[in-house]
Amino acid sequence: MPDSRFYESLGPASLSELAALTGGRLASEGEGERPIHGVGALASADRQSVTFLSDRRYLRQLAATSAAACFVGESDAKSCPATCAAVIVPLPQAAYAMAAERFHRPRAHEAGSPAVHPTARLEEGVIVCAGVVIGAGAMVGRGTRLSPGVVIGPGVAIGRDGEVGANASIAFALIGDRVRICAGALIGEPGFGATAGPKGLIDIPQLGRVIIQDGVTVGAGACIDRGALEDTVIGENTKIDNLVQIAHNVIVGRNCVLAAHTGVSGSVTIGDGVQLGGRVGIADHITIGAGARLAAAAGTMRDVPAGETWGGMPARPIRRWMRETALLARLADRPRKGEGQP
Question: How far apart are CA 110 and CA 257, in angstroms?
């Protein structure tokens, strides 16, 4: 279930109500009065949640799910375990998105409240500059400096001896000690999630968090999206350059370096000690092994083994990429038949 510090629960709904909301029907009408309290992923949903299946590659997860109900297509209804009621819909992921909006609302700044909300807790020695806004229930640790124009969302926790640069925005996040966030960084904005709905594309509510561990640096203008349901995590002592984009559900290990203009797609896992050169791009659901290095502008579309150095587009082991580049250069320089003759 989403973290109650960041998301307001809108109360339960029956399966019949959810079926009507999403344009679906129950595989077993006797399940209509079953109460549902929220949404969850297949692997982590509890007995009060509804989940969805839109990709048959995850049938094993469906068979093992603890969810009370699942939005499925007609052909997958019989794959639901006995404890999980099937709600048959034409577009399972769109139905999930509609249910998520029904159950969970992101907490927002309260209109008309003071700049520093009365329920916010600031330890002794916090420096609050002009124009800072701090939401309800937020916590800031001793010795942390909040520069002019910083916005801290409801429920956010920031540790001790940190620094947040001018006009940075932090929401849906738990941040450790000695974290430096430079000017204009955006942390906790919704990840990029959309799916086909009955009348066109619809947004998928993003209900996770951002976890930033101790000693991390986040550069100016960098964006770190909150998770869709799980967390986006930045490991201890990792250094992120200016204008880096980290998408939802990404896991970055400890002591990593991400140079400027790097883009990391959703659900990527990056091991400890990884080094990413400027303008590296990583496709979704990729794993970068511990200690691996990606050369500047590498376009990474498959897993990179631990300790290896890759480059190019698409990225491959760097010695191979350099040999291929040199060979192409020699071929390009080779005169064509008839060239240079009178």
Answer: 37
**Token pair for residue 308?**
């290896």
Identify the CATH class of 255-342.
mainly beta
Catalytic residue (choose from 37, 104, 117, 248): 248
Class of the domain covering 7-106: alpha beta
Q: How many CB atoms lie within 10 A of CB 157?
A: 17
Q: Compute the distance between CA of residue 166 and CA of residue 273 in angstroms, rounded to an integer.
A: 29
* Burial group, residue 287, by CB count within 10 angstroms (0-12, 13-18, 19+): middle
Cα–Cα dist 54/76, whole Å: 9
The one-letter code for the residue type at 70 is C
Class of the CATH domain delimited by 116-249: mainly beta
Residue spans of alpha helices (H) in the chain: 15-22, 59-64, 92-103, 318-333
pLDDT at position 341 over 70: no
On the question of pLDDT at 13 being above 60, the answer is yes
CA angle 175, 176, 182 (to 5 degrees): 65
pLDDT computed for residue 119 by the predictor: 98
**Which region holds residue 118: left if phi is over 0, alpha if psi is between -120 and 50, else beta?**
alpha
The confidence score (pLDDT) of residue 121 equals 98
Q: How far is CA 278 from CA 12, 217, 253, in A?
A: 47, 16, 18
User: Amino acid identity, residue 58?
Assistant: Y
Tell how strand 251-252 and strand 269-270 pair up: parallel
Active site residue 248: yes
Q: Is a pLDDT exceeding 60 seen at residue 288?
A: yes
Of the candidates 104, 126, 92, 79, the residue with the CA atom closest to the CA atom of residue 24: 92
Question: What would the pLDDT profile of 215-237 be if each residue is shown by its tens digit?
Answer: 999 999 999 999 998 999 999 99
Backbone φ/ψ region at 331: left (φ over 0), alpha (ψ -120 to 50), beta: alpha
* Angle, helix 92-103 to helix 15-22, in steps of 10 degrees: 120
Q: What is the pLDDT of residues 177-204, one digit of tens each?
A: 999 999 999 999 999 999 999 999 999 9
41 pLDDT higher than 60: yes
